[in-house]
Design brief:
Elements (H helix, E strand, L loop, with lengths): L3 H12 L11 E4 L5 E6 L5 E6 L2 E4 L1 E5 L2 E6 L7 E7 L2 E6 L11 H8 L11 E7 L2 E9 L5 E6 L12 E3 L3 E7 L6 E7 L5 E4 L15 E2 L10 H7 L10 E5 L1 H4 L1 E3 L24 E3 L2 H15 L3 E4 L3 E2 L12 E5 L6 H13 L3 E6 L25 H4 E2 L4 E2 L6 H18 L3 E4 L2 H5 L21 H17 L4 E4 L24 E3 L1 H12 L2 H4 L4 H4 L1 H4 L5 E5 L11 H4 L4 H17 L3 E5 L24 H19 L13 E8 L4 E8 L4 E8 L5 E8 L4 E7 L15 E3 L10 E7 L3 E8 L5
Parallel strand pairs: 17-20, 17-30, 20-23, 23-26, 26-27, 27-28, 28-29, 29-30
Antiparallel strand pairs: 1-2, 2-6, 3-4, 3-7, 5-6, 7-8, 9-10, 10-13, 11-14, 12-13, 14-15, 14-16, 18-19, 21-22, 24-25, 31-32, 32-33, 33-38, 34-37, 35-36, 35-38
Helix pairs in contact: 5-6, 8-10, 16-17
Length: 756
């Protein structure tokens, strides 16, 4: 308790929102001469009574009009209430300052300070709890540079004078407010040492208002999961030895609903719809429940193993595609509530589909309610703009040298896997984190302590991230979008390579650019650039690669996949089929962006729907049929995935036939002794009597042909398969005489017994 002479100063600090220790003044306190006094801070209250043990005791404003006091004989603890009159309205409440239980314990603070509190979300944020049998919300925030922090919300008129929080060791601020419940809106009013107030959303908030509103919302996890078998199987196997075909999508532009269509919650209640955007008037966003009803059957029918969601972490601006995050612990409220997103993931799992979250730890926006200048100082970001800002993106860079900042991010990734059962993360823009000179002119970046361009602190963060994730969840995916030659992206750090990052997959950006460059050429020129389709195998085993044709390749006037291809419509579709089927037979896991599965013609537009109307035309239907079939074949043929990252899994037969634009290779699975022959013709003319060597004599059944009529092709092929001839070729004693359709990929499976 403050001494009498310090009470005036404490009251002045409370009145001016400069108090960091309200517990020293407010609540019950022992008096020096015996007895206790209860003090309540209630700005603008006209009358306050103390309700104690069935008695009503008037409280007086002795030292300040907002500070009400009453002496009592014994310590009342938390067993009293305050009855107050304000603006002619009477109300009764528990006194927040009578609940003083420390929320963040010594061990919690220690682990957080060293960056190793892996489940920090169980402490930070707003939590529905009980203290002394009274329910309410426990608030906890890290803001070490703040002079004072108040919890504000509709419950106190957004008035920062009402509920000042208590500062604890390590810059932690705590306050339990009794009587608050789920759905309560709140922010933190932070007063800086410079005298400025900031209203901030909760960095650890589990739910936030629908944009453009920015308050956090108290939320509880009430969801009952039904995916125990899925999780058990996932964490009991090596994902690199499984088929992985990923459907990347953006929830807000996959499909919209008519604004007049009712927006029904899972419990049957109708809620206000969320308008899509100003660019698509008369429409609304689908809810998580509606998306589950529509997306999951589509993805399941196509045979994809996973959905990758472009960021669904809360973000204020659609035009950022979700990559400028303000809520690292909350699914965006555009589509519904957190438990509704849990239900989306649960339904994916129960339909055999994994969920990958696009996660953004590289930068954050400058929105005033977010992390920027959070406590009136540079907290989450660097003070020096040469290492603290992406000027081209207009965003700020996390300060990875701060333990608490790394803890915030590592715990966020773990949170999504723990609380939402996400099956993996795709980490955005890893190269921007690794290099201090990324998109920076000479003289506008700072070297590391060794004089180099590597961001050593970011390297340590990524290593910590992956080590932590795989410690808890060995079966998940951690995928790096990394576009440089950084060594060991998918290897754990070791004495041999201290800079290895520990992901288990990396997007193969080189393969993607080579393929798109090659297929964009007029076929006559392809004979001079055969290396573009074969070069990937020169470096392939340096990392665990995922082949990706992502959203970045169908925006900013790059054209969608179909219209990158040269020629008339027939050739565009044939080239698209040839590329996608080559992708599915090339070593590595697979990712394509929504719309590619049926040949969307226009570029992706975040404000609009996919071009679902194109599916009324046969050529689009047939392309989608090919995706269905190649995915089914991919999942059934272990030779196409089990040994993706083992040199036993792939072998060229012939890759130097530049003039004809043909490559041939084998895919093998040593465990099952299964293997396939793949032959690709990337020229628009067929090759009849084309011979390749094969390792065994017998029958080679044609099990897939991208030129089949059912896929929109010319229907050339090999009449179900071919027997070998005893003619040596390509270092083998036997060979096949094949018909290679134009712009095609054909797959053969060996059998000693002839056709089925």
């Amino acid at each position: 308790m403050v001494e009498h002479q310090g009470l005036a100063q404490a009251v002045e600090q409370l009145a001016n929102c400069r108090q960091h220790d309200p517990y020293a003044t407010l609540g019950p306190h022992a008096l020096p001469g015996g007895g206790h006094v209860v003090r309540a801070w209630l700005p603008d209250a006209e009358r306050v009574d103390l309700m104690l043990q069935g008695r009503t005791l008037a409280m007086e404003a002795v030292h300040h009009p907002w500070l009400f006091e009453r002496e009592v004989a014994t310590d009342p603890g938390s067993a009293y209430q305050l009855q107050l009159q304000r603006g002619g309205i009477h109300s009764r409440q528990h006194d927040p300052y009578s609940f003083r239980q420390e929320w963040m314990g010594e061990l919690d603070r220690h682990l957080f300070a060293e960056g190793n509190h892996h489940h920090i979300w169980t402490r930070m944020g707003g939590h529905r709890v009980e203290q002394a049998g009274v329910s309410g919300v426990q608030f906890c925030l890290w803001a070490p540079n703040a002079v004072s922090v108040s919890v504000i919300g509709a419950f106190n008129g957004w008035d920062g004078r009402m509920h000042p929080a208590q500062k604890r060791i390590g810059g932690i601020w705590e306050l339990f407010i009794p009587g608050l419940g789920e759905g309560e809106l709140y922010k933190y009013e932070i007063h800086s040492r410079h005298g400025h107030p900031y209203a901030k959303a909760d960095p650890y908030g589990f739910h936030h208002e629908v944009r453009p509103a920015t308050a956090s919302v108290v939320a509880e996890n009430r969801f009952a999961w039904g995916d125990e078998a899925w999780i058990r199987q996932r964490d009991g196997q090596n994902p690199l030895e499984q088929p992985i075909a990923v459907y990347e999508m953006h929830l807000g532009s996959w499909l919209h609903a008519d604004a007049a269509q009712p927006c029904v919650e899972p419990d049957g209640t109708v809620r206000a719809p969320v308008p899509a955007n100003d660019m698509k008037p008369g429409t609304r966003l689908l809810t998580y429940t509606e998306l589950a009803d529509k997306v999951i059957p589509h993805v399941k029918a196509r045979g994809f193993t996973h959905i990758e969601l472009m960021p669904v972490t809360e973000h204020p601006f659609e035009g950022s595609w979700g990559y400028q995050v303000t809520g690292w612990y909350a699914p965006t409220s555009r589509y519904g509530k957190p438990d509704e997103f849990r239900a989306f993931v649960d339904r994916c799992h129960q339909n055999g589909i994994g969920v990958i979250l696009d996660w953004v730890p590289g930068h954050f926006p400058k929105d005033s309610h977010g992390l920027a200048y959070f406590d009136g100082d540079f907290l989450y970001e660097h003070a020096d703009q040469r290492i603290g800002e992406h000027k081209e993106w207009g965003t700020l860079i996390f300060n990875y040298s701060r333990n608490e900042v790394r803890n915030f991010l590592v715990s966020s990734a773990l949170f999504w896997i723990s609380e939402f059962h996400i099956d993996g993360i795709r980490v955005d823009a890893v190269a921007s984190m690794l290099y201090l000179d990324y998109l920076r002119p000479e003289g506008e970046w700072l070297p590391n302590k060794h004089g180099g361009r590597e961001n050593l602190e970011a390297v340590n963060f990524l290593q910590q991230l992956n080590e932590t994730l795989f410690h808890y969840f060995p079966g998940i995916l951690s995928i790096a979008e990394e576009s440089t030659e950084w060594p060991g992206v998918t290897q754990p750090a070791s004495d041999h390579n201290r800079d290895a990052l520990g992901f288990n997959l990396k997007w193969n950006m080189g393969w993607m650019h080579d393929m798109l460059d090659y297929f964009a050429m007029d076929p006559w020129f392809r004979q001079f650039h055969q290396n573009l389709i074969t070069f990937s195998m020169m470096y392939y085993y340096s990392e665990n690669f995922m082949l990706a044709l992502s959203h970045d390749e169908v925006v900013h006037e790059k054209s969608n996949l179909l219209h990158k291809m040269p020629g008339d419509d027939w050739r565009k579709f044939a080239n698209t089929r040839a590329l996608l089927s080559y992708m599915w037979t090339h070593p590595g896991k697979k990712t394509i962006f929504m719309g590619m599965e049926f040949g969307q013609r226009g570029e992706w537009n975040v404000w609009d729907d996919l071009e679902w109307d194109k599916l009324q035309y046969p050529e689009h239907q047939k392309l989608m049929k090919m995706i269905d079939d190649i995915n089914a074949l991919y999942r059934s043929e272990s030779a196409l995935w089990r040994e993706d990252f083992n040199t036993n899994g792939f072998q060229w037969i012939h890759c130097d036939d530049n003039r004809n634009g043909v490559i041939s290779f084998m895919r093998r699975d040593e465990k099952s002794r299964r293997w396939l022959i793949v032959v690709c013709n990337f020229m628009p003319n067929p090759h009849k009597n084309y011979r390749i060597g094969v390792p065994l004599e017998g029958w080679y059944g044609e099990i897939f042909n991208s030129d089949a009529e059912i896929y929109g092709g010319s229907n050339l092929g090999n009449l179900g398969g071919r027997f070998t001839d005893p003619w040596p070729m390509h270092s083998y004693a036997h060979s096949l005489d094949l018909c290679l359709p134009p712009l095609s990929t054909v797959i053969f499976r060996h059998s000693h017994h002839g056709p089925d």
